[in-house]
């Protein structure tokens, strides 16, 4: 009886869903509950619109008010997000800056674009989102935090104006907003623009301005040096014993940096309003990876593992005339490589260049009515050759090439080199504390072959390795951010 009732409800729900979808095909700007449009209507709906893409480097998904965090990190974004779509199941294709950002700009997985090891740069023959937009008449401008998001690593491709700002010890989001505002004020108003902003403000070192600390007080005193990225090494090797107040101290500094960024984003959106650009501009906020706070031992870093705290990231998209006031949430699985095909679809730009190989999927069905386009998504990290510095965390491991296949229910992690496998239930254990590999052989037998097939496929598409030539300034910044150790050798 119950089964029959369930079938009846399912049929009815499907019928309602179909009717709503058909209505949306017929009527522009249709908004029926969770259904806001149709993929067919969204395709090209923003032709000639501007695009602002902001990368909030190292921002965890779970540190915003909108995602349930209790501390007041994001009052502005919590309000602004009511006019945007929040993608609650966004997985970054890598857990560190360089490969994750190139996946954003190429629509390719790290193994395919091959800028996936410390010191790699994007090959010149790869075609980026900025290049496609520039070729289609867009004025392209980028202000970045430098280091791994710099000219030397291939990020200037396609930008008419590309500038690295500040150094790793300063927070730069205020300066990025000032520079962007001046640029927006002086640009040719008859040309659509693509503005890309990136900052390491919530990355180590944790140095929030003092005026952003009060919302998080009381802040415990601590002798831990939050400004030294190599504090991590000393903590992990037990030269420093981290006590609960130390952990709280580091968390609150990180939170205060998010609050600073939140405030500056508010200034950016106000500038768009003042310049009457909001109604003609798609805004995308995303993070390239999260950060560890001893979720799985490590702290103040991200590149070594593929657990949720480093690959589950926020993604917000504001679409003028469609998403205002709805506070839309989307639960379907999405990944970084999906962004480029999605944005080009929205902007009505078709690709004729055979060199463009986008491996993600357009998210128009997810935007329209949360219809899944990915049954599973993937992430990988080759941040290796440095694990021996964490003997307690990675006993016996010197090199790794870790991959994860993530479904809405499970995460299966495989490190083939070290023969390490893990399986976690996302639904029952979202913090991934219980490895259920041995208890769930049926799940492993389903996910492991899928992951191996994906690994074979991306390996077959892998490009040639291209090493970056790093100038002394870039080397210094990478040292300060913890990517290269003080001896100058690459922290791999
Ligand atoms: Zn990063």
TrEMBL record:
<dbReference type="InterPro" id="IPR052701">
    <property type="entry name" value="GAG_Ulvan_Degrading_Sulfatases"/>
</dbReference>
<feature type="domain" description="Sulfatase N-terminal">
    <location>
        <begin position="50"/>
        <end position="349"/>
    </location>
</feature>
<dbReference type="InterPro" id="IPR000917">
    <property type="entry name" value="Sulfatase_N"/>
</dbReference>
<keyword id="KW-0732">Signal</keyword>
<feature type="signal peptide">
    <location>
        <begin position="1"/>
        <end position="26"/>
    </location>
</feature>
<dbReference type="Pfam" id="PF00884">
    <property type="entry name" value="Sulfatase"/>
</dbReference>
<protein>
    <submittedName>
        <fullName>Sulfatase</fullName>
    </submittedName>
</protein>
<dbReference type="InterPro" id="IPR017850">
    <property type="entry name" value="Alkaline_phosphatase_core_sf"/>
</dbReference>
């Amino acid at each position: 009886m119950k089964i029959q009732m369930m079938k009846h409800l399912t049929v009815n729900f499907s019928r309602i869903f179909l009717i709503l979808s058909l209505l949306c095909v017929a009527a522009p700007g249709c908004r029926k509950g969770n259904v806001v449009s149709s993929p067919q209507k969204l395709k090209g709906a923003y032709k000639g619109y501007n695009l602002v893409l902001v990368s909030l480097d190292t921002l965890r998904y779970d540190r915003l008010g909108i995602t349930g965090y209790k501390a007041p990190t994001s009052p502005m974004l919590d309000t602004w997000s009511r006019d945007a779509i929040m993608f609650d199941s966004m997985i970054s294709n890598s857990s560190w800056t360089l490969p994750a950002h190139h996946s954003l700009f190429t629509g390719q997985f790290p193994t395919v674009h091959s800028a996936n090891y410390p010191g790699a740069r994007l090959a010149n023959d790869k075609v980026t989102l900025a290049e496609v937009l520039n070729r289609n008449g867009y004025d392209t401008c980028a202000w970045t935090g430098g280091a791994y998001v710099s000219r030397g690593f291939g990020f200037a491709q396609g930008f008419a104006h590309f500038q690295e700002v500040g150094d790793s010890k300063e927070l730069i989001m205020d300066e990025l907003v000032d520079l962007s505002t001046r640029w927006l004020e002086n640009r040719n108003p008859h040309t659509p623009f693509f503005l890309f902003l990136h900052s390491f403000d919530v990355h180590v070192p944790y140095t929030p301005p003092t005026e952003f600390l009060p919302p998080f007080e009381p802040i415990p005193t601590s002798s831990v040096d939050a400004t030294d990225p190599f504090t991590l090494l000393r903590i992990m090797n037990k030269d420093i014993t981290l006590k609960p107040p130390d952990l709280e101290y580091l968390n609150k500094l990180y939170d205060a940096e998010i609050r600073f960024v939140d405030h500056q984003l508010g200034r950016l959106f106000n500038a768009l309003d003042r310049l009457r650009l909001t109604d003609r501009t798609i805004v995308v906020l995303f993070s390239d990876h999260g950060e560890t706070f001893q979720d799985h031992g490590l702290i103040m870093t991200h590149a070594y593992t593929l657990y949720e705290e480093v690959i589950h990231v926020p993604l917000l998209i504001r679409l003028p005339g469609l998403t205002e006031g709805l506070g839309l949430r989307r639960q379907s699985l999405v990944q970084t490589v999906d962004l480029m095909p999605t944005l080009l679809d929205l902007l009505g730009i078709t690709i004729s260049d055979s060199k463009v190989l986008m491996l993600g999927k357009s998210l128009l069905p997810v935007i329209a009515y949360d219809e899944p386009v990915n049954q599973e998504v993937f992430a990988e990290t080759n941040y290796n050759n440095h694990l021996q510095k964490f003997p307690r965390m990675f006993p016996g491991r010197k090199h790794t090439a870790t991959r994860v296949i993530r479904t809405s229910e499970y995460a299966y992690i495989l490190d083939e080199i070290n023969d390490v496998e893990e399986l976690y239930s996302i639904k029952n254990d979202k913090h991934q504390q219980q490895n259920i590999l041995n208890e769930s052989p049926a799940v492993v037998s389903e996910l492991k072959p899928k992951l191996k097939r994906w690994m074979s496929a991306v390996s077959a598409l892998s490009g040639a390795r291209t090493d970056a030539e790093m100038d002394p300034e870039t080397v210094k910044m990478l040292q300060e951010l913890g990517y290269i150790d003080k001896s100058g050798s690459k922290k791999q």
